[in-house]
């Protein structure tokens, strides 16, 4: 099985303009906000999932928040491999990298965040997703020789379309950074979780592997609950930041 790096399968039609990856070494939570840049992409020649080539992704402001940097690194890892063309295999690899991004974001929150509720959520998210990473790694290895059953380069393919839409939604709803580390974590984890829910729903609709579909349902249940908790906290604290 390939390691965490996986193709930016069905990710967005736009690219975040994030800061230099070296900035995640610092605990600088003063942010400048993120922009999006729509690109024309031709995936058919490269074999990548349609709409997912980030080779032209531009660098943004050097002051981008560490949370945004972590998401940028996650997408770069997902872009490192190409889809096999099996729904279960490719979902496992994509969600594996997505979970690793969430763990990185949780670590940043535990380093920089001050709010007790957001820190507890970060601890829980990290613990849950580390456990699921182990299961996803096993599933990805088990499915390495699975037969192809969808077309990653065909935008009309139902699975390709749903996976792409999951990341398009994340990009379209990407919040601007603020100076508060807790609020940055809250807002970015909300959209990050929603994209995971959407990916898991694509697996439920088009996957064939029983164990992986069960895991996808568990992800939906857990992360929809956490999304609501994140939104509730945001509503209670947005005016204080």
From TrEMBL:
Signal peptide: 1-26
InterPro entries membership: DUF305_CopM-like, Ferritin-like
UniProt cross-references to Pfam families, sorted A to Z: DUF305
Keyword flag Signal: yes
Keywords on record: Signal
Compositionally biased residues, Low complexity: 27-42
Domain DUF305 per the UniProt entry, residue ranges: 88-233
Region feature (Disordered): 27-60
Protein origin, superkingdom: Bacteria
Protein name as it appears in the record: DUF305 domain-containing protein
Lineage: Bacteria, Pseudomonadati, Bacteroidota, Cytophagia, Cytophagales
């Amino acid at each position: 099985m390939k390691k965490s790096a996986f193709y930016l399968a069905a990710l967005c039609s736009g690219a975040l303009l994030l800061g230099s990856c070296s900035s995640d070494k610092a605990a600088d939570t003063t942010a400048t906000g993120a922009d999006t840049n729509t690109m024309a992409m031709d995936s058919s020649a490269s074999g990548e999932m349609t709409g997912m080539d980030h080779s032209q992704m531009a660098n943004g402001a050097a002051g981008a928040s560490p949370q945004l940097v972590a998401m940028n690194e996650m997408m770069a890892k997902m872009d490192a491999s190409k889809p096999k063309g099996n729904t279960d295999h490719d979902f496992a690899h994509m969600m594996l990298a997505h979970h690793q991004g969430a763990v990185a974001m949780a670590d940043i929150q535990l380093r920089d965040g001050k709010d007790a509720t957001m820190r507890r959520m970060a601890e829980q998210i990290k613990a849950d997703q580390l456990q699921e990473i182990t299961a996803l790694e096993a599933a990805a290895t088990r499915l390495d020789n699975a037969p192809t059953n969808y077309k990653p380069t065909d935008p009309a393919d139902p699975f390709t379309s749903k996976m792409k839409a999951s990341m398009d939604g994340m990009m379209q709803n990407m919040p601007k950074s603020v100076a508060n580390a807790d609020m940055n974590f809250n807002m970015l984890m909300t959209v990050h979780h929603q994209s995971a829910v959407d990916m898991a729903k694509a697996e439920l609709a088009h996957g064939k592997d029983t164990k992986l579909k069960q895991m996808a349902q568990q992800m939906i249940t857990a992360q929809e609950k956490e999304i609501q908790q994140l939104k509730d906290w945001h509503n209670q604290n947005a005016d204080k930041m």
